[in-house]
Design goal:
This protein is mainly α. The protein contains five helices and no strands. The protein has a domain at about 20-75.
């Protein structure tokens, strides 16, 4: 069952799970997915800067997101998330991983 749309306060879906009922992987993925969505361009809006996305995630700590997961996430500097986002969204980088080619 997909559970990364569950909210820590029980307001999510599809099962209405709450807190530690939500598998830890799903609680981590919820933060990662939200960050990626906010710092990526969308057809209806541009990407947010990472520092604003982090503030938004913090604002929903304890409601949408597990506060323990958010605390660990916030300990990492913006630069780490920016570099990771760049690496996973750069087509050439992905091509190199698949083919084993070097830059």
């Amino acid at each position: 069952m997909i559970t990364h749309q569950e909210h820590f306060d029980g307001a999510g879906y599809p099962q209405g799970l709450k807190g530690k009922q939500i598998p830890i992987g799903s609680r981590i993925f919820a933060v990662a997915d939200a960050l990626d969505a906010m710092i990526s361009d969308r057809p209806y809006r541009g990407a947010l800067p990472i520092h604003l996305a982090r503030k938004e995630i913090l604002a929903h700590s304890g409601t949408q997101f597990d506060p323990d997961v958010v605390a660990v996430f916030l300990k990492k500097p913006d630069e780490i998330w920016g570099k990771l986002h760049h690496e996973i969204t750069t087509p050439f980088h992905l091509f190199n991983r698949v083919t084993g080619a070097s830059a």
